[in-house]
Amino acid sequence: MTFTFRPLDPLKDAELLHGWVTHPKAAFWMMQDARLQDVEREYMRIAAHEHHHAYLGLRGGEPAFLMEQYDPRYVELVGLYEPQPGDVGMHFLTPATDTPVHGFTRSVITAVMARLFEDPAVRRVVVEPDVANKAVHALNEAVGFVPEREIQKPEKKALLSFCTREQFVAATGTAPTRTAATGTAATGAAV
Prior knowledge:
This protein is an alpha+beta fold and 191 residues long. The chain contains five helices and eight strands; from the N terminus they run E-H-H-E-E-E-H-E-H-E-E-H-E. It has an eight-stranded mixed sheet, with helices on both faces. Strand 2 and strand 3 form a beta hairpin. The longest helix is centred in the middle third of the chain and has 14 residues. 31% of the residues are buried. About 3% of the residues have low confidence.
């Protein structure tokens, strides 16, 4: 599967995102009770933040998933671990669907990781999913993440995990390449 990425437009995309983040499947996104205005406000905050960015992943030009990338020195993990040069944090969300595609979510996380590693300055991806989110732990492991320890964040107990470029390539066989276009394409292997 091939995906492209575009910056999220907090106002234009809020209605779509609202449906995604409030769905019971997205419980770990922690926006179950959010109103449309809450989603707009949250993504306007992210859009205005120097160290936090949100993107829509597109498949065939249509929104297929949400990706956030952040600098853990300033967002999400401040004071919770010792950041290294080249660390980047990541969140992703695939929306609920009535017609699941086998291997889709794994393809998404593979594409997200390939996109992050396109930047030669990125040496390691950091994630902090809820310790109870066993499905995402399995996906993370499949693309090369290694759990380090549990940490207590204000909103959850999280499993701090890391994936280097080398671990990602070894786990997936995907070698990230730099692309010149802003609508970067990334391929995720379906499994």
